[in-house]
UniProtKB/TrEMBL annotation:
It comes from the Eukaryota. SUPFAM superfamilies: EF-hand. Pfam families: EF-hand_7 (PF13499). One of its GO terms (molecular function) is calcium ion binding. InterPro entries: EF-hand-dom_pair, EF_Hand_1_Ca_BS, EF_hand_dom, EF_hand_pair_protein_CML-like. This is EF-hand domain-containing protein. Potential calcium sensor that binds calcium in vitro. Keywords: Calcium, Metal-binding, Repeat. PROSITE patterns: EF_HAND_1, EF_HAND_2. Residues 2-37, 38-73, 74-109, 110-140 form the EF-hand domain. SMART domains: EFh (SM00054). It comes from Lupinus angustifolius.
Amino acid sequence: MKRDPEFERVLSYFDEDGDGKISPYELRNMLCKMGGELLLKEAEMVIEAMDSDGDGLLCLEDFAKLMEAGGEEEKLMDLREAFEIYDKEKCGFITPKSLKRMLKKLGESKSVDDCKLMISRFDLNGDGMLSFEEFRIMMQ
C-alpha cells in the first residue's frame, strides 16, 4: 500500500501512546473527544474486524481501510437520500412521472416520454423504472 501522509497524520492524532498503532481504547477515546459515542466493546469489534495481523491493534494500512470504508458508507447514504428525493411516492422506484415532477421543480420541462427515454438508458431489468441499484450504477 502506498503511504498516505494524510492517513499517517490522522493515525498519529489517534495514537496517544505513540506506538504507531491504534488500540480500542485510543479509538474510543478519540471518537468521544470529537463528540461521537463508541463503547469500548464496539471499538474492540471494529478493530477485530479490520485488524490484518491479529495483534488487536490498527496499523496504518488497517486504519486507511477503515477510513476508506467509512467514506463508501457515507457516499451510499448520500445516494440513498438523493434517490428518495425522486421517489416521492415511496414505492422504491423512480418512475417516469416522478422524474418529470422532480425535473420540473428543478426548472427543466420534460414530457413523460422524455423521462421514459432517460430512464430506459439505465433500466437494467426493463421494467420502465429505476430501482435504487440501477440509480446507484447510473450515478457512478
